[in-house]
Design a protein that fits this description.
By secondary structure, this protein is an alpha/beta fold. The protein has helices at about 40-50, 75-85, 100-115, 120-140, 155-170, 185-200, 215-220, 240-245, 250-260; strands at about 5-15, 15-25, 30-35, 55-60, 65-70, 85-90, 175-180, 205-210, 225-230, 230-235. It starts with a strand and ends with a helix.
Length: about 260
Protein backbone atom coordinates (compact mmCIF):
# COMPACT_ATOMS: atom_id res chain seq x y z
CA UNK A 1 0.00 0.00 0.00
CA UNK A 2 1.21 3.51 -0.80
CA UNK A 3 2.24 5.22 2.43
CA UNK A 4 2.86 8.63 0.83
CA UNK A 5 1.01 9.61 -2.34
CA UNK A 6 1.60 12.99 -3.95
CA UNK A 7 -0.79 13.80 -6.78
CA UNK A 8 -0.71 16.74 -9.20
CA UNK A 9 1.16 19.27 -7.06
CA UNK A 10 1.43 22.63 -8.81
CA UNK A 11 2.87 25.87 -7.46
CA UNK A 12 3.12 29.27 -9.09
CA UNK A 13 4.82 32.44 -7.95
CA UNK A 14 3.24 35.16 -10.04
CA UNK A 15 3.59 34.07 -13.66
CA UNK A 16 6.36 31.59 -12.86
CA UNK A 17 5.37 27.92 -12.65
CA UNK A 18 7.74 26.38 -10.14
CA UNK A 19 5.96 23.02 -9.86
CA UNK A 20 4.00 21.71 -12.82
CA UNK A 21 2.09 18.61 -11.77
CA UNK A 22 4.32 16.51 -9.51
CA UNK A 23 3.15 12.92 -8.90
CA UNK A 24 4.95 10.19 -6.94
CA UNK A 25 4.40 7.65 -4.20
CA UNK A 26 6.45 5.87 -1.52
CA UNK A 27 5.95 2.72 0.49
CA UNK A 28 6.45 2.81 4.25
CA UNK A 29 10.15 2.80 5.14
CA UNK A 30 11.36 3.85 1.69
CA UNK A 31 13.96 6.58 1.25
CA UNK A 32 13.57 8.98 -1.68
CA UNK A 33 16.38 11.31 -2.73
CA UNK A 34 15.48 14.30 -4.90
CA UNK A 35 18.24 15.68 -7.09
CA UNK A 36 18.39 18.42 -9.70
CA UNK A 37 19.83 21.81 -10.47
CA UNK A 38 19.01 24.94 -8.48
CA UNK A 39 15.62 26.30 -9.48
CA UNK A 40 14.21 22.92 -10.49
CA UNK A 41 11.55 23.01 -7.75
CA UNK A 42 13.05 20.60 -5.21
CA UNK A 43 12.84 22.81 -2.13
CA UNK A 44 9.47 24.26 -3.13
CA UNK A 45 8.11 20.71 -3.31
CA UNK A 46 9.32 19.99 0.24
CA UNK A 47 7.84 23.26 1.48
CA UNK A 48 4.48 22.39 -0.08
CA UNK A 49 4.54 18.95 1.56
CA UNK A 50 5.19 20.65 4.92
CA UNK A 51 2.57 23.39 4.37
CA UNK A 52 5.23 26.10 4.51
CA UNK A 53 3.96 26.98 1.03
CA UNK A 54 0.40 26.50 -0.17
CA UNK A 55 0.22 24.48 -3.36
CA UNK A 56 -2.09 25.88 -6.04
CA UNK A 57 -3.24 22.43 -7.10
CA UNK A 58 -2.83 18.87 -5.91
CA UNK A 59 -3.51 16.42 -3.09
CA UNK A 60 -1.20 14.63 -0.63
CA UNK A 61 -2.19 11.41 1.12
CA UNK A 62 -0.44 9.73 4.05
CA UNK A 63 -1.32 6.13 4.83
CA UNK A 64 -4.44 6.41 2.70
CA UNK A 65 -5.78 9.53 4.43
CA UNK A 66 -5.94 12.95 2.80
CA UNK A 67 -3.45 15.28 4.49
CA UNK A 68 -3.31 18.22 2.08
CA UNK A 69 -5.78 19.35 -0.55
CA UNK A 70 -4.80 22.55 -2.35
CA UNK A 71 -8.45 23.45 -2.86
CA UNK A 72 -9.17 23.54 0.86
CA UNK A 73 -8.41 26.31 3.35
CA UNK A 74 -7.10 25.20 6.72
CA UNK A 75 -7.14 26.97 10.06
CA UNK A 76 -3.85 27.69 11.83
CA UNK A 77 -4.60 24.87 14.27
CA UNK A 78 -5.27 22.42 11.44
CA UNK A 79 -2.01 23.43 9.73
CA UNK A 80 -0.06 22.86 12.97
CA UNK A 81 -1.62 19.42 13.34
CA UNK A 82 -0.94 18.46 9.72
CA UNK A 83 2.69 19.56 9.98
CA UNK A 84 3.21 16.97 12.70
CA UNK A 85 3.03 14.29 10.00
CA UNK A 86 6.10 15.75 8.26
CA UNK A 87 9.35 16.49 10.08
CA UNK A 88 11.57 18.93 8.19
CA UNK A 89 15.30 19.46 8.72
CA UNK A 90 16.32 22.80 7.21
CA UNK A 91 19.56 23.82 5.52
CA UNK A 92 20.38 26.43 8.15
CA UNK A 93 19.58 24.36 11.29
CA UNK A 94 17.26 27.03 12.82
CA UNK A 95 18.15 26.23 16.43
CA UNK A 96 17.07 28.71 19.09
CA UNK A 97 20.29 30.35 20.35
CA UNK A 98 18.84 31.20 23.79
CA UNK A 99 18.09 27.54 24.60
CA UNK A 100 20.52 24.72 25.23
CA UNK A 101 20.50 21.59 23.08
CA UNK A 102 18.11 19.65 25.31
CA UNK A 103 15.67 22.56 25.50
CA UNK A 104 15.77 22.96 21.70
CA UNK A 105 14.58 19.36 21.42
CA UNK A 106 11.87 19.55 24.08
CA UNK A 107 10.42 23.01 23.37
CA UNK A 108 7.79 22.00 20.79
CA UNK A 109 6.57 18.87 22.64
CA UNK A 110 6.28 20.87 25.87
CA UNK A 111 4.25 23.57 24.13
CA UNK A 112 1.92 20.90 22.76
CA UNK A 113 1.61 19.41 26.22
CA UNK A 114 0.48 22.76 27.63
CA UNK A 115 -2.39 22.79 25.13
CA UNK A 116 -3.78 19.52 26.53
CA UNK A 117 -6.19 20.98 29.05
CA UNK A 118 -7.76 17.59 29.74
CA UNK A 119 -4.62 16.25 31.48
CA UNK A 120 -4.19 16.48 35.26
CA UNK A 121 -1.11 18.03 36.82
CA UNK A 122 0.20 14.56 37.66
CA UNK A 123 -0.34 13.34 34.10
CA UNK A 124 1.49 16.36 32.71
CA UNK A 125 4.38 15.71 35.08
CA UNK A 126 4.64 12.13 33.81
CA UNK A 127 4.49 13.32 30.21
CA UNK A 128 7.30 15.82 30.86
CA UNK A 129 9.49 13.00 32.14
CA UNK A 130 8.78 11.02 28.96
CA UNK A 131 9.61 14.03 26.78
CA UNK A 132 12.97 14.56 28.50
CA UNK A 133 13.78 10.85 28.33
CA UNK A 134 12.96 10.76 24.61
CA UNK A 135 15.16 13.80 23.95
CA UNK A 136 18.10 12.24 25.77
CA UNK A 137 17.61 9.00 23.82
CA UNK A 138 17.55 10.86 20.49
CA UNK A 139 20.69 12.81 21.39
CA UNK A 140 22.36 9.46 21.96
CA UNK A 141 21.08 8.27 18.57
CA UNK A 142 22.80 11.19 16.81
CA UNK A 143 25.94 10.87 18.95
CA UNK A 144 25.51 14.01 21.05
CA UNK A 145 24.65 12.81 24.56
CA UNK A 146 27.43 14.91 26.05
CA UNK A 147 26.11 18.12 24.44
CA UNK A 148 22.67 18.17 26.12
CA UNK A 149 23.48 21.25 28.22
CA UNK A 150 25.54 23.03 25.56
CA UNK A 151 24.23 26.08 23.71
CA UNK A 152 24.21 26.40 19.91
CA UNK A 153 27.14 28.83 20.03
CA UNK A 154 29.22 26.11 21.73
CA UNK A 155 28.84 23.35 19.11
CA UNK A 156 30.04 22.85 15.53
CA UNK A 157 28.00 23.16 12.36
CA UNK A 158 27.81 19.40 11.98
CA UNK A 159 26.60 19.09 15.56
CA UNK A 160 24.01 21.81 14.89
CA UNK A 161 22.58 19.74 12.07
CA UNK A 162 22.55 16.56 14.15
CA UNK A 163 20.64 18.42 16.87
CA UNK A 164 18.21 19.65 14.21
CA UNK A 165 17.67 16.04 13.05
CA UNK A 166 16.99 14.90 16.62
CA UNK A 167 14.58 17.82 17.10
CA UNK A 168 12.63 16.84 13.97
CA UNK A 169 12.34 13.28 15.30
CA UNK A 170 10.97 14.43 18.67
CA UNK A 171 7.42 14.82 17.32
CA UNK A 172 7.54 11.34 15.74
CA UNK A 173 6.63 12.40 12.19
CA UNK A 174 5.30 9.89 9.69
CA UNK A 175 7.82 11.16 7.14
CA UNK A 176 11.17 12.84 7.78
CA UNK A 177 12.24 15.42 5.19
CA UNK A 178 15.67 16.94 4.64
CA UNK A 179 16.33 20.07 2.59
CA UNK A 180 19.98 19.96 1.49
CA UNK A 181 21.09 18.91 5.00
CA UNK A 182 24.81 19.38 4.27
CA UNK A 183 24.78 22.50 2.08
CA UNK A 184 25.72 24.84 4.97
CA UNK A 185 28.53 22.61 6.23
CA UNK A 186 32.24 22.51 5.60
CA UNK A 187 33.31 19.36 3.70
CA UNK A 188 34.90 17.79 6.79
CA UNK A 189 31.58 18.02 8.67
CA UNK A 190 29.42 16.70 5.86
CA UNK A 191 30.36 13.07 6.45
CA UNK A 192 29.21 12.99 10.07
CA UNK A 193 25.74 14.29 9.17
CA UNK A 194 25.34 11.92 6.21
CA UNK A 195 26.33 9.02 8.48
CA UNK A 196 23.59 9.93 10.96
CA UNK A 197 20.97 10.13 8.18
CA UNK A 198 22.07 6.79 6.77
CA UNK A 199 21.83 5.21 10.24
CA UNK A 200 18.24 6.49 10.55
CA UNK A 201 17.16 4.36 7.62
CA UNK A 202 14.91 1.55 8.77
CA UNK A 203 11.88 -0.34 7.60
CA UNK A 204 9.67 1.98 9.65
CA UNK A 205 11.10 5.42 8.84
CA UNK A 206 10.10 6.98 5.53
CA UNK A 207 12.40 9.78 4.37
CA UNK A 208 12.49 12.37 1.58
CA UNK A 209 15.90 13.95 1.06
CA UNK A 210 16.74 16.87 -1.22
CA UNK A 211 20.48 16.55 -1.72
CA UNK A 212 23.39 17.48 -3.95
CA UNK A 213 25.47 14.57 -2.61
CA UNK A 214 25.22 12.11 -5.49
CA UNK A 215 27.19 9.27 -3.92
CA UNK A 216 25.14 9.53 -0.74
CA UNK A 217 21.88 9.51 -2.71
CA UNK A 218 23.05 6.43 -4.60
CA UNK A 219 23.92 4.54 -1.40
CA UNK A 220 21.02 5.45 0.89
CA UNK A 221 18.01 5.66 -1.45
CA UNK A 222 15.37 3.19 -2.49
CA UNK A 223 14.22 5.67 -5.15
CA UNK A 224 15.83 8.72 -6.77
CA UNK A 225 13.87 11.54 -8.37
CA UNK A 226 15.50 13.94 -10.82
CA UNK A 227 13.63 17.22 -11.15
CA UNK A 228 14.04 19.76 -13.94
CA UNK A 229 11.91 22.81 -14.75
CA UNK A 230 9.29 21.98 -12.14
CA UNK A 231 8.56 18.41 -13.24
CA UNK A 232 9.88 14.93 -12.49
CA UNK A 233 12.15 14.40 -15.46
CA UNK A 234 13.15 10.88 -14.41
CA UNK A 235 12.59 8.61 -11.42
CA UNK A 236 13.73 5.12 -10.56
CA UNK A 237 16.06 3.03 -8.46
CA UNK A 238 19.57 4.43 -7.82
CA UNK A 239 20.92 1.97 -10.36
CA UNK A 240 18.46 3.11 -13.02
CA UNK A 241 18.98 6.81 -12.41
CA UNK A 242 22.75 6.90 -11.90
CA UNK A 243 23.96 3.97 -13.99
CA UNK A 244 21.44 3.99 -16.84
CA UNK A 245 19.97 7.50 -17.19
CA UNK A 246 17.57 7.96 -20.09
CA UNK A 247 16.75 11.67 -20.04
CA UNK A 248 19.27 13.91 -21.84
CA UNK A 249 18.76 16.48 -19.05
CA UNK A 250 19.67 13.89 -16.41
CA UNK A 251 22.74 12.79 -18.39
CA UNK A 252 23.90 16.40 -18.62
CA UNK A 253 23.24 16.98 -14.91
CA UNK A 254 25.21 13.89 -13.84
CA UNK A 255 28.11 14.78 -16.13
CA UNK A 256 28.21 18.26 -14.63
CA UNK A 257 28.09 16.81 -11.12
CA UNK A 258 31.08 14.58 -11.89
CA UNK A 259 33.07 17.58 -13.14
CA UNK A 260 32.54 19.30 -9.78
CA UNK A 261 34.08 16.48 -7.77
Amino acid sequence: MEFLKVSGICKRFGNTEVLRGVDFSLEKGEVLSIIGSSGSGKTTLLRCLNLLENADEGIVYINGEEMICAQKKYTDKEIREKRLHMGLVFQQFNLFPQYNVLDNLTLAPKLRLKEKKELTKQQKSEELKKINAQAIELLSTVGLSEKAKSYPCEISGGQHQRVAIARALMLKPNILCFDEPTSALDPELTGEVLKVIKNLKSGERTMVIVTHEMEFAKNVSDKVMFMADGVIEEMGTPEEVFDNPKSPKLVAFLNKAKENF
